[in-house]
TrEMBL record, chains A, B:
One of its GO terms (molecular function) is aspartate kinase activity. This is Aspartokinase. Keywords: Amino-acid biosynthesis, ATP-binding, Kinase, Lysine biosynthesis, Nucleotide-binding, Transferase. Pathway: Amino-acid biosynthesis; L-methionine biosynthesis via de novo pathway; L-homoserine from L-aspartate: step 1/3; Amino-acid biosynthesis; L-lysine biosynthesis via DAP pathway; (S)-tetrahydrodipicolinate from L-aspartate: step 1/4; Amino-acid biosynthesis; L-threonine biosynthesis; L-threonine from L-aspartate: step 1/5. Pfam families: AA_kinase (PF00696), ACT (PF01842), ACT_9 (PF22468). Residues 268-353 form the ACT domain. It is an enzyme of class 2 (transferase). Belongs to the aspartokinase family. It comes from Limimaricola variabilis. It comes from the Bacteria. It catalyses: L-aspartate + ATP = 4-phospho-L-aspartate + ADP.
Amino acid sequence: MSVLVMKFGGTSVATLDRIHRAAKRVAVEVAKGHEVIVIVSAMAGKTNELVGWVNETSPMYDAREYDAVTSSGENVTAGLMALRLQEMDIPARSWQGWQVPVQTTSAHGAARIEDIPPENIRAKFAEGMKVAVVAGFQGVSPEGRITTLGRGGSDTTAVAFAAAFDAVRCDIYTDVDGVYTTDPRICEKARKLDRIAFEEMLELASLGAKVLQTRSVELAMRYKVKLRVLSSFEEQSDDAGTLVCDEEDIMESNVVAGVAYSRDEAKMTLISVADRPGIASAIFGALADASVNVDMIVQNISEEGRTDMTFSCPNDQVMRAEKAVEAARERGDIRFNDLVTDTGVAKVSVVGIGMRSHTGVAADMFKALAAEGINIKVITTSEIKISVLIDRKYMELAVQALHDAFGLDKAA
Amino acid sequence: MSVLVMKFGGTSVATLDRIHRAAKRVAVEVAKGHEVIVIVSAMAGKTNELVGWVNETSPMYDAREYDAVTSSGENVTAGLMALRLQEMDIPARSWQGWQVPVQTTSAHGAARIEDIPPENIRAKFAEGMKVAVVAGFQGVSPEGRITTLGRGGSDTTAVAFAAAFDAVRCDIYTDVDGVYTTDPRICEKARKLDRIAFEEMLELASLGAKVLQTRSVELAMRYKVKLRVLSSFEEQSDDAGTLVCDEEDIMESNVVAGVAYSRDEAKMTLISVADRPGIASAIFGALADASVNVDMIVQNISEEGRTDMTFSCPNDQVMRAEKAVEAARERGDIRFNDLVTDTGVAKVSVVGIGMRSHTGVAADMFKALAAEGINIKVITTSEIKISVLIDRKYMELAVQALHDAFGLDKAA
């Protein structure tokens, strides 16, 4: 029998009524003949409440106890979902992480799933159970302690189960109805994508499209799990939402799949750095030691042994970055004339696997921005992505212009 | 090293502040050199909330899922208590039922503890852990499912741990400061007892003094666990509260230890029952089948083959009892002229192991009630208890009169 994994996030199980609605979706899939594994989050707000209690009790908490406390919200929804399904005459039972077992590393608070032996759940399916409701976000360490996977970890739980049970698909039910070409709040022409490649989704997820946890997309890509994002608040057909899949499964697509943005960026430039071998390592080593997430890096051509070094980081890490750089200067590790910080920038990116085979995407992008009079401050590129830093005030305009320029309002 | 068990009920861990206060009590005992096992309930109100959700989701719920959901509150307080103790530099960790493991029967919702292998916790004590914080109320079935012990089950958890670890004592911290000779709200002369025998506590507990769960007292009696009831809201000395112990450990005591009452009783009389062998079995079999908790039973002398049969039961079971008796009459199982129900009665009892060796307690009791003009409707006696049914309006008066008559305001 085919196994289907369905994951419901916190807003989708926030009340008993919503659990009921989610259970009806599960019933539809059971009626199609699937054996279903349902992964549930805690009711929206519950985990935050528990985290608050832990922080108040012990600011430098023992992560093992943090996990013991914060994992409890998922146990509640798993049991309630199983009960609701039983009320609908669907044989169901709940599973906590240690009961499956979801075997993880001992990295409490940010554990990695190592294995999910499918035998226990398969045995219950063989006995007639139709739905296994699994508490997401949690597992058990080799020492027998409860672990959690980090915030948003239930997506990862879902994908890991889909891989372990060779599921036909992993459906992620959330409060949006799919992945869009860009943020509909910024660009009214934004269009829901029917399909998107893993690599594109990874770039979009890490660029700030908060639909799926990055880790879960990586895992899905590695194990070729077909991942579907869809809304738990709408009636759904078989081809609803957005399918995140291998690029071979996408027949035809636009060169650019989507436009992403990140609002809270800062640009920092070290003016007239004394250029010598190892200087980049000295600068970015100091920033890494201070836990600054450096994103883009640009180094100008060196003239007379001096160069300008520009990088970007999140706005709220600017102070930390400035301190780290100044400290490195005081230690004599680096020399520069001035440090110029610009906290008024935003990053806009176009993403698409089509860029691999199509040339001229960067040129089209720059042309579209130039046509709107938007100055580009920094550029970086990867195989399937081009990102630019611009003045923040032009961000919405840039997103709209690029969406138009690459024809994203029309399907391929 | 000596093990001490300390149990904190829901009101004693209702907030982070109260958990802090409880942790300070634990620290005092650790400082005395004890290895401590702390049993915690869920924060007051949490379990009721979870039970409400289960009932709303599935009125005829699967007890296994009920247990999976309702056990989660204790996991939260166990983790928070462990964190709080760690903040006070006391090596502590939390244990959920399955981690210990607390092995129970599969009777979900009302499981019995079968064994608590002490090895895992002892090994951690040997490694330097000073406090094991155990989630009360829960265990694990032979099938690996989570079980709960029934409401108030954390008392039972505490006593079972005290027995398994051969603890020096089991301290039950609650919102009252001990066991009283009677309810202080009814009789202002009520006096806190320093000690009370297990047998007396059992009679008082089942008679409605809601200090300790009856099961936990039975268990303590069987394993000779010294049980102490004391307040978590007062500074405590070593001899605070009330010690529930073997009667040999009580040097001298009053003949009567306490006066108990039960307000919501009903008296039912079957008038002119056709008396024949097996008639009592026919009546009370029918009532048992209808889940009526029959308490007192009185049968008058039979005259000309007919008799009156009187029994008492909780007020809210009267309708069920009437239906059961009528149905038995319709089936022809019993014959009687009339069924008279009196829902305006209360039960008052005097309890004391001293009755075993002292005569005349019943006579003194009846005399004291007669002196106040209180008519006795039904009498039953056991080895250490005499109970009477009286009009409910005289209940407070009866309790006060008996408290005076047996000199309970003065220590032995």
